[in-house]
Every structure is written in C-alpha cells, then in structure tokens.
Please model this.
Amino acid sequence: MAAHLSSGRVNLTALREAGRRELREFLDKCAGSKAIVWDEYLTGPFGLIAQYSLLKEHEVEKMFTLKPGRLPPADVKNIIFFVRPKLELMDIITDNVLREDRGRSPQRDFHILFVPRRSLLCEQWLKEQGVLGSFIHREQYSLDLIPFDGDLLSMESESAFKECYLESDQTSLYHAAKGLMTLQALYGTIPQIFGKGDCARHVANMMIRMKREFPGSQNSIFPVFDTLLLLDRNVDLLTPLATQLTYEGLIDEIYGIQNTYVKLPPEKFAPKKQGEGGKDLPTEPKKLQLNSAEELYAEIRDKNFNAVGSVLSKKAKIISAAFEERHHAKTVGEIKQFVSQLPHMQAARSSLANHTSIAELIKDITTSEDFFDNLTVEQEFMSGIDTDKVNNYIEDCIAQKHPLIKILRLVCLQSVCNSGLKQKVLDHYKREILQTYGYEHILTLNNLEKAGLLKAQTGGRNNYPTIRKTLRLWMDDVNEQNPNDISYVYSGYAPLSVRLAQLLARPGWRSIEEVLKMLPGPHFEERQQLPTGLQKKRQQGENRVTLVFFLGGVTYAEIAALRFLSQMEDGGTEYIIATTKLINGTTWIKSLMEKLEPAPF
Amino acid sequence: MDCYTANWNPLGEETFYRKLELYSMEWGLREDLRDCVVAAAPYGGPIALLRNSRRDKTPSARPLLEIYSASGLLLASVPWKSGRLVHLGWTAGEDLLCIQEDGTVLVYNLFCEFKRHFSMGNEVLQNHVLEAQVFHTEFGTGVAILTGALRFSLATNIDDLKLRRLPEVPGLQKPPPCWAVLSQDRVTVVLLAVGQELFLLDNTSCSVVSPPGLSPSAGPFLHMAVSFTHRHLALFCDSGTVWMGTASLKEKFCEFNTGIRSPPKQMVWCTRPRSRQRAVVLAWERQLMVVGNSSECIRFVLDEDSHLVPELDGVRILSRSSHEFLHEIPEASQEIFRIASMAPGALLLEAQKEYEAASFGKCFLDRFPPEGFVRMCQDLRVLNAIRDYQIGIPLTFTQYKQLTIEVLLDRLVLRRLYPLAIRICEFLRLPEIQGVSRILAHWACYKVQQKDKSDEEVAQAINQKLGDTAGISYSDIATRAYDCGRAELAIKMQKKPTTNYPNLSVPPNPTVPVPVPVPVPVPVPVYTVVLHLKNELNRGSFFMTLQNQPVALSLYRQFCRHQERETLKDLYNQDDNHQELGNLHVQGGYSQQRIEGRVAALQNALDEFYKAKNDFAAKATEEQIKLLRLQRHLQEELDKPYLDLSLHDTVHTLILDGHHKRAEQLYRDFRIPDKRYWWLKINALATRGDWEEMEKFSKSKKSPIGYLPFVEVAVKHHNRYEAKKYAPRVPPEQRVKAFVLVGDLEQAAEAAIERKNEAEMSLVLARCSAATDGAVAEKLNRARAQLLKK
Model:
C-alpha cells in the first residue's frame, strides 16, 4: 500500500508510520465509537497518512465535513473535530457545539485535534464563545511533512509563500523547522546545512535554536542525510512561472494534481466495448492516483512530454507481445506460468491504457496554436530576447481577454527575466490589465509587486543575462529524448533552483559567489556537530544524500530535474525533496491574488 | 589517635555515638525556645520560628514569623497577622506550612512570601484544631489534624488535596496523650494511644493493636515516635519503659527502662540506614538520653532548652546558642579510628601520618580505578561548600547521597544561591542541560520578578548572562514575566515559542520525602501577550510598544486582518503606510452595499495613494470612480446591468447592444489603446453577427492590428464567407495562414509558392486530403521539389 515510500534511498515509510502511530494514539484516547468532522482541506493530506480502514479499526464510524449548523445525527459516543487552527473554523465549530441537542441521551463527547499545532489564540476564541469547556481532549497532530512519494515530502501549506512574503507571518517557517526536527529525530542529525534566502536563514536559525533548547536526548541515530539545502522560493521566482514540459508537470499544469490525485475528463476513459459505442459515456471525472507505485508512471513521469510517446508505443508492443505468448504456451506448465503472470500483465495493460489516454488529452493541448505561441514567448523571455519592451503577444492576449492568470504569468515572467520592467512598460501592462479585467485587480497587482514578481527596474541594471550565462540557465542544444542536462524539463531552460543545488554538490558555491550575491537574501553554511562514532565513513562510490527544502513551493518539473541529477551516473548525489507546497505557476499566482467579491448593489 | 575518638560514646558492643557542634547559632534569640513554635526542615533545611505565641495571647502584640538557615542566619521575617497558629511544618519542597486553629493552612516559601492557602475542612471551623502534624510519605507531604471533636482528618498530599476524615475512636473522651501518622504499604494510618491501649485508625475502621513483647508492667503510653523512614516505632510508657520495634507492630527490637517516669519533651529515632543498632533519643528539660539494644544508655546534659530535629542518619539538636548533630559513627569511620583497629583504612591512615603524603596509598594501586576516589573528593568539597555557615546546609554524606545532587541544586536555587549552584555544576562537570542552563533559567525567572529594575535593565542582564547557553527556553522566562504583569518584558524575552526545559528532578528513592520540583512555567505564545497588552494598555502606547517588536507586530497584523480590519487601519495610520491604507479602503469599498459608499471608499483610497506617491494607483482609482459613475448612468438610461463590469466588458456590452457612439466615447475618454479597441470591437461585432458594421469598421482606417484577426474572428464565428473577404488584405507573411484558416487551400498554396517558403508549403500540404485536393498537393510537391533542388 505504501511500498513506493520505501523504494527510494531514504525509507520514508518510517515517517508515515510515525504519523499513523500518533493518530492511533489520539483516537484511542477517545474511547468508544466516533465520528470525525473534517476541515475539508485536511482530508487530502490525511489520506496520504492513513486510509479509512485505519480509522475504522479505531471505531470511527462516521465522517462529516465541517460546516455551520447542527451536526448530522450519528449514534456515536465521540465527535472529533480535525481542523487547522484558523479562527474562521473556530466559529463554525462553536456553532456546531452550541446547536447540539443537550437533551439527547446519551450525550456525545466533543474533542478537537488541531493540525499541525494547537493555537492558544483559537482556544481563547473558543473560550470567549463559552464552548472551550465542551471539549474533553484538545490536542495537536503535528502533520508537518507528509510523505508523497519515495523521495518527496510536502507540508501542503497553501498559503506559506503568501504569508512569508506578503504578510511577514513566519508561522509556516516555524512548522517547517519543526518538521525538519521530526525528520532529524527519525533519520539522524543532518551534519551540513546550506541555504540561500531570508526564509532559509530563518529556518536554519530556528533549527539550531530548537536543537540547543532541547538537546536533552542526544540523537544517536546514524545520519541518513548528509546535507540539507534550504532554498527560498523568492531566490528563483522564474521557474514556477514557466510552463512545465515534463509529463507530470503538464498533467499538473492542465488538470491540477492534488495530493497525488488528478481528475480527468471522462470521455477518453470510456470502456471500449464493442457494440455499445458511445452509449453511456461516463459523466463523472475520472480520478487517478499518480505515484511511483505505478511502474509505468514512475518511468515516464519525469520525461519531457515529447519523449513520452515513444515509450508508450514501445510498452504497447511489449505488452501485446506478452499476451501473444499464450499462443506459444503448449505444455500445462507453460500455461500455468502464463496465467500466473496474467494479473500483473493486466495491470500493466490498464496502466498503459490510462496513460495513453492522458497523453492524448495533453497532446490535444500542446499541439494547439495558442500553446505554441505562449511557449514561444516564454522561451524568448527566458533566453533573453526582447524582454525590455511591451510584448505583442501579451497585448493581443489581453485584448482577447485570455484568462487573467495566463497574462499575469507571462508579465511576471518578463519582469523577472529583465530584473524588472521599465516603468513605462510596467504601467502599460498594469493599465491594460485593470481596464480589461477590472480595477479590483489593483490589489492583486500590488501583491505581485510586494512579492517581487512584478517590479520596476531600479538603477537600470538588468542582472538576468549575467545570471543566465553564469548558471547556464538557457541551453540551446537541448535533448528531449535522451537528456544530458536538467534543461530538458523546460525544453531549454534549466531551472535556477536546481542549478543551485547542482552547483552546490559540484564544484561548490564558492565558484558562483558573484551570482549568489545578485540573488536575494543571504547564503550560508552551518554545521551541526555529530557525536563521535556517528560520523560517516564513506564507501568508495557511495552517493551522498541531500535533502532540498523549497520554502514557498516547488514544481513537478524541478522535482524531475532533481531526480534526473540523482540518476546521473557520475552525479555522486541523491536528492530527497521537501517543500511547503507542491505548486505550479497557476496555483502559485492564484494564491497571491486578492479575491474581491463586490457586494451586489 | 585519641583526639578523633574522644567524643565517641559506646552504646552496646559495636556502636558509638557522637555529638558534635555544627554551628554556633547567630540568631541572637532572646526568648527560650520553649516559648516559640519551632519547625526545622529535614536534610539540613531551614528553621521556622514563631515567637511569643504561647505566653502572650494579647492580640495587640503581633508575633513575628522568622525563617533562619540552619546556621542561624535570618533569611526572612514577617509579622504574623493571621489567626492562632497550632503547628508549623515544612514540605518536602521546603515550603512552610502554618496550620491555624480554624483549619486553614497557609503556605509560605522560605523567604516568607505567601504562596497559597488551603483548608482542612469546614468541620474544623467550629471545633478548632487541637493538634496537627506534618508528615512525609512517598505521596508527598501530608497534614494530619486532631479536631476539638476528637476526630482525626488527614490529607496525604497537600499538592493534590484529598481530605480524609477518619472514623471515630470509641470511648475517646479527651485528646490522646500521643499519636502519630504511619505509612504502611502505601496506606496512611493514624496510631494513637488511649491509656494502656493502642488504636490503629485507617480509612474505615478503628482497631486495637498491641506491641509484641511489651512488659505487662509498662503502664499507659505517654509518647511515641516514628522513624524517618516510617519503618520503626518507639513507645514511651508511664513506667519509664521505652519499647522499640517495627512500625507494623509485628516485631520487637528491644526494651529499655529509663527510670524516668515523666514523659520526655521529645523522643525521636536516631539510627542510620542499615545499622545494626536501633536507637532513640529522648529529651527532657535538662537531659538527653540515647537508648538502644543495650543495658546501658548514653546520657548528655542539656545546658539549654533544646529542640530535636530527626534526620535520615541522626538527630539535630537546636538550642539558643548552638546547633549540634548527634549520630551513630559510620562503619567506615569506626574501622579507621577505633582503637586498635587493623582495618586497611586504619593502616593507611597510619601510613599517611608517617609520610605526610596525602592520598598516599593510592599511588601503590595501579589497577585500582581512580573514579571512586575522585568522586569522593568532589563530594566532600561540595559538602564542605554547602556546610559553610553562610550557606548553612549541614548535610551528612548519607543524606547527600539520598537527596541526590539534582535536588541539592534545586535547594540552592530555592535559596537563590545561583552562583554557588552554578559553581558546583561546573565543578562536577554536569551536562549543561541538567546544570548550568537550568539554573540560569531559574535565575532569569527570578530576575524578571524584581520589580525595582526597568524592563530594559532586566532584559539586558538576562541576555548578557544567558546569551546562547544551551537548553534555555526564553519563552518560559517570558511566561514568568507575563505572570508578574510585565507583559512588555515578556515580549522582549520572547523570540519565538519554543520548547520547555525539562522539569526539575525528583530523588529516585520513593521511601523518603520527595522534594517537590520548583514549578516550571508553560510557554505563552506571543499572541497571548499581545492580546493581553491590547486589553491593558491604551491604544497609543500599545501601538508604540508593538512598533519595536516586529514579530509581535506582524502577528498582530495577521490577527487584525482576520478579525479587526478597523484596527489594521489604525496600525497603518500610525506607520504612515499610505499604500496599505489605500488598499484597505479599496477592500472596504467592495463590501459596501451602496454605490455611494463604494465611491466614497475609493475616494479615500485615492487620497492615500497620492500620499503614498503612487501616481499610477491614484490615476487608476480615479478612472475607476469615473467608470462607476458612468456605469450607473448607463444602467439607469439603458436599463441593463453595467455596474461592476470591467471597462473592457462595458464597451463590449455597449457594442453588442449597438450603442457604437457611446462605445466610441468610452474609447476616447479612457484612452483605450487602438490595438486593444480594435480587437475588442471586432470580437463584439462578430459575436453580434454584425458583419456589415465590421466591414465598415475595417475600412474606417488602416487596422492597427492588421487583418488576420478579422479572418480569425470570422472563422471563429463560423462565417467563412466573411472571413474570405479579409484574407487578401492580410500581409504576405501571414497570408498563407489566413487562406488556410478560411479553407482556401488553392490560394494558400499559391501564396506559399510565391513566397518560396518550404515550411509554409508543408503546412498547406498537411491540410490537403488526397481525395479532394489532389491537384493542389501535386502543385505543392512540385514546387517544393524545385525549391529543394536549388
């Protein structure tokens, strides 16, 4: 069930197991039958830790979604609220509790589980509403880093970037530091910490401080990670804005992957049976889980989309050849062997069918003219062409009122690739946007400016060309089929963040000191003392393990690039990736938009 | 050698007792001890004294409650203002319990600072407390009382107060001459004597018991004593006989007749752990007697009125002028110093004297691990340090080992002897987390309570001392500061909510009194402090306070963003952050129910944007106001919703409805760029299907966007016929695309061939189907072949 978590270099099942243990302990505290009232946002992340069966084993009989009003009837002894510590949610809970029928018998006990931290503010709020006393257990469940895959951890904290950069609220960084402490408790102290950016510095400081304030139990676990690299998202604002071109990246760009699940239009997945063509097309979206537990997906997820087709057709041939085998099976033994392989083959065939359908869906979009035009402009910007003047394509898109997020992505991309736009150009874009999409977006634009995604060039210096050249961010001779460089994930553009990780491993950051100074925030190195005896004696040819933590989000293309580096034969480093949230340009920009809904006049 | 053993007094064959002076008391007591209520805490603890209480009962004279160190140094004093005191006693954590006649128990710390109070039950209010005892068990410190109704009540742990009223004793007419609290098998019971009978009172019953082997002639019981460990019991009878045995009354050790028939003032056990001799000390007015399993006894003369304090391995004797310790000589000392001893220790001592070399013998032992020796030397130094009269904790080695170093450090902390505690930690090389940092944290918590120092001074002092010492949680210190009402200081201390430091430790052996750990505060998050401050301070100074605390400020802003938008406005106002103020006004405008409200809010925003020197935002807001007014006008006039459409959509809707003049007006008024206006107009016209107007428009002047968009828009609306009209006007470089779009492959092919562009030829070819466009395809293929030949 969670085998894919242990497939990587670091066995992340242990982390998941720790999470499950904590959950079980809490559930057992509330003796008797239970109903869980869910903060809807939490159901996805929790699904990655524990399935319904685990809850059922611990007498969870009903589950509801948190909403105002009276709680649905359920003949259970305990009602447990699983919530994030948000005041809006406390109001709903208060409403639920106050409307509970006091006359009913037997009375139901209330409990509350805060994820990931208890908040005194929330408890005080409940107290002011006079319901705090109704809760027998008030606990916290430190769900900081959730294992998504064998090499991937995410906090799924949607607003982390916004809170850090727009609201200077560093709560999510505190959670990140806590998560790293948990990780170190399970996998040993990480001896080396590198970082770039203000938030990275902050997290490192908190980690060191937490270690100092709680050195009680000397960690005696042999360290699994050699290095931790903390990276601020605002060090590399460029990468998420560009359209990802890996298979998984494109699925996310087009359909959105949430907690490893994707919902796809059903038409292509209709069961193809003869005789009932197009009779009852399914109307429910097709929901698929995407992770490396699926053999085929593990193979193609990180490939450039242009290289996926050939793999799929090759697979198709192999599978049909395997099915052909049955005709050659003569003896009983051979037939038996064939039958024993049948389930595996059928699974492979259905997996192939699914991905062929997905690839077709994606292909319809990537071959469209608009996708091509958009990509061309992106690539021009990233390679440094005409970044300093108003772009025709963007203008036309605005004039035709293309989706606002698409426009914002392009304008921000241009701004970042030019170290800020000329005031006149910037004002022009802004005016075009306000007039076309509505003046209320002035707040969104303001947010983007605060986050540094959109800005006026100051001092008239454009650092991007220097950065691009030194870090080799643009590669003209990209090989999409058999890549030799990470730039394949964006068909030419090598993600800056991953380049920093790559250069850190070899030859070290000292070689790019100048460029590092041009990027925002400090860069630093810290060492954590290991007790003697725990120091690693490296075997010849043994790879180092680096944990790269993206503060403010990471894209699937960046993950693909890091996986590519892990697999390089002479790479010498394997990467595990952690982040506050899995993002793409669209979800990222959306999180920064101000949602204003005018009251109807 | 006789100098060592001069004060050794033999009791029986094998044991010796010694009385030595610990300190000469400096307390300058004028009264006799018998006129005071006295209580001394075990383990060399402090002495509490209430003067005047017995003789002078006039309410005008306020007795003085004083606390001294064991060496007689005054730690603190306070006039006793509460009701009549029955008994004083110390808890295991060195808190003073003052049990009053009305059953109220007041708890003070060792600096006479009042901590809390609790009551021994309502029943006592009328009946009064006649007698009380404080006792220590594995559950903690307990209190037992005898009420005027001759009933016993007790609480086994005052920190988890559960009062138990014991059953009535049949036939009890007057207070029993003596009683004691016993702890047996985790049950606390009261043993009392009534005449010649002993009663055992437990939770539910009262049973008669009798000590085994007691001489029938012993007579009524007058006094009893329980040992420090609750294992042994001694009974003094009317005939002067002392019976000694186990507290379970199952075994008798011995019996001794003192020959004195008056009851002793005090009787306490004086036995060290694991000793073969079990002895008790009896004190009369002028005489002290040690009796044990021997026909002889040891007698001392008392020059002064004295008070006995039982200890784990002996008895402390307090008097007005001196503080002495009476104990059995430990076996090791006996072996070394006993006359004619041939034990190795004695020989070694002899050798040492001969050679004048310290640690002489050690050099001859090469395979003997030195740790034991080193540890012993360290322990002795620690003991010497704390025995100094200025510190005044006269612990014996046995007591010290029982107490453990952790508890000793806690006691030093309680006495606020931080430097000594730290010095000891450093000397013993204790890990920082158990030692230095724990003490520093306590010091800091004490420091923040010093009200005479300014916040700045305190914060600085703490910062200087603590610096980056490991294992200190600033949030705990902040909590303490917050508790004493110094919320600002709390913010200063609090950098980020962090972990607790571990609780103070508890000695491992549960059969002896458990010193209670110094309470550790729980962390208060910044929020609590901030919200508290908000309620306490007036707005102005609250904001000023926040200004210097970026973390607190941003958290408070975050809170306001969700809960108190108005306050957020004030916050920005104070900062002169006009940009954010403007944003807030914009946001506020969108929750207005009426358009006037929206306009007014936007007007405010406009002003703020100007103040923020954000001309762009100001102009945009100006435009927005203009648009809103115009939309309202349109809405009224055309009876169609226009409000809250964007400018683009407003113009679009106008064109859709055929109001071309008005659209034109907006285009000019809002200076919409030509290109965008053309796109906008042809899209709207195509949607409306107004191809005539579109053609007219296309000819009105040269299109700033070219003519390909016309083709595209028409095709999008499935009107190839119209699209074809514009294809020829498309410039050559886009013409192929235009013809392909309208589906005229022949023309497309021609254009491509004309331009000799191979890519374009392929594009057209790809669209050709073999069935219908054979001729075109052939033509293209030929042209391409020709092109490639060159």
